[in-house]
Amino acid sequence: MNATVTAVSSNGVYSFTKPNRDSITLLEGLGVEGDVHAGVTVKHRSRVAQDPTQPNLRQVHLIHEELFAEVAASGFTVAPGQLGENITTRGIDLLGLPAGTLLRIGADAVLEVTGLRNPCVQIDAFQEGLLKQVVGRDETGRVVLKAGVMSVVRAGGVVRPGDTVEVRLPAEPHRPLERV
């Protein structure tokens, strides 16, 4: 299956969900144009409170559409943008990518995957019990975070639903994704 973008979302104000758009513009080194989380330094409130000078490794949030079907099997209804992601994909194992993976999206945009989204209690405020669906444990007892990956913009460009996503793995040895 070819990897594609199924939805794009942004919001200029702090809100858990982000409305879907016809397109978003990625700005090199900043994030999604007009999105509240765009910037060189951290924009997520909890991280700003810790240290507002930290680099923003969470400029663009991606979630795999397949997660929505997974949580639907447990009775939850989630649509693109509702978990705060900027780009919803299909056909790519985002959670299995190593840190430093480059994602070319559409004609020009390039994202570098920096780590896993750390799901927070706002997910349960959105739909009670959903947090347990996006944070689990594998067969060894290790915590598994399923709420998508975070990235930074290495090359800007316009991203639209239907755009292809090309994966370029970094040189080995690969580093597994950790929460950022």
From TrEMBL:
Residue ranges that the Swiss-Prot or TrEMBL entry lists as coiled coil: none
What residues does the MOSC domain cover?
A: 18-168
**Pfam families associated with the record:** MOSC
* Highest taxon of the lineage: Bacteria
The protein in question is named: MOSC domain-containing protein
Q: Check the record and name the Gene3D superfamilies matching this protein.
A: PK beta-barrel domain-like
